[in-house]
Structure formats: structure tokens, C-alpha cells
């Protein structure tokens, strides 16, 4: 048993979510997201190989000046990460919200990725 003493509630929720995802993933890659006050990041990770398959964020050069911490920016990141994953041959993933609540920018990114062809 790993001790959670000293961890924040956010860190405990993140650990609990990742553990549950790994048990149910069935070998599928993980769509992991992180959001900060200014940006949102998404990446498709193959945990078996320990490699990132595709990624997108609001920090990329082509969108850096036009986006920020908005729902529209999250939708754009979701579309771009789904396109990059499909180009790499990945269509099915498990969604790792990384301890963030499924609301607002997190939900917008997930919905945009689903609309662009990722299945989760």
C-alpha cells in the first residue's frame, strides 16, 4: 500500500484516477490532460512503451498568440490532439483527466476530441 500521507486532495484524486484507468485500459493509450491558469495541454501516451504518441497545447507556435485559458482554446487543443493521434494510427484511448474535474475546459477538450474521431 502506498501512503498518501502528506498529499493534497488533488494529488490523491489524480493517483486514484490513474490507478483505476490502468486497471481498465486494456492496453489502450491514455489521453492525458493538464490545465493551468494560462494554458491547457493534452497528450496521448502509450504506457506499455512509455512513449508519447501525440500532443497538443496552447503553447504551440501556430496558436500561441491567439489562444489562452478559454473553452475555445481547449476545443482547439482537443481537435488538434485527435488529428495527431489519428495520424499516428490511434483511434481508441482512455481519458485521463489528471485529477481535474470533468467540467469547463476539461469537458470542452474531451468533447472536441470525440467529435474529431477519438473514441473513449
UniProtKB/TrEMBL annotation:
GO terms for molecular function: 5S rRNA binding; structural constituent of ribosome. It comes from the Bacteria. InterPro entries: Ribosomal_L18, Ribosomal_uL18_bac-type, Ribosomal_uL18_bac/plant/anim. The keyword Phosphoprotein does not apply. GO terms for biological process: translation. One of its GO terms (cellular component) is cytosolic large ribosomal subunit. Pfam families: Ribosomal_L18p. The keyword RNA-binding applies. Keywords: Ribonucleoprotein, Ribosomal protein, RNA-binding, rRNA-binding. HAMAP family: Ribosomal_uL18_B. NCBIfam families: L18_bact. Part of the 50S ribosomal subunit; part of the 5S rRNA/L5/L18/L25 subcomplex. Contacts the 5S and 23S rRNAs. This is one of the proteins that bind and probably mediate the attachment of the 5S RNA into the large ribosomal subunit, where it forms part of the central protuberance. Belongs to the universal ribosomal protein uL18 family. This is Large ribosomal subunit protein uL18.
Amino acid at each position: 500500500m502506498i501512503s498518501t500521507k502528506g498529499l493534497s486532495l488533488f494529488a490523491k484524486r489524480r493517483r486514484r484516477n490513474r490507478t483505476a484507468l490502468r486497471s481498465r485500459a486494456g492496453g489502450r493509450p491514455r489521453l492525458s490532460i493538464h490545465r493551468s491558469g494560462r494554458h491547457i495541454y493534452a497528450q496521448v501516451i502509450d504506457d506499455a512503451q512509455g512513449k508519447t504518441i501525440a500532443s497538443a497545447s496552447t503553447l504551440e507556435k501556430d496558436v500561441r498568440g491567439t489562444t489562452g485559458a478559454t473553452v475555445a482554446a481547449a476545443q482547439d487543443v482537443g481537435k488538434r490532439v485527435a488529428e495527431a493521434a489519428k495520424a499516428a494510427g490511434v483511434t481508441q484511448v482512455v481519458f485521463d483527466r489528471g485529477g481535474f474535474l470533468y467540467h469547463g475546459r476539461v469537458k470542452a477538450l474531451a468533447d472536441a476530441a470525440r467529435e474529431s474521431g477519438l473514441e473513449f
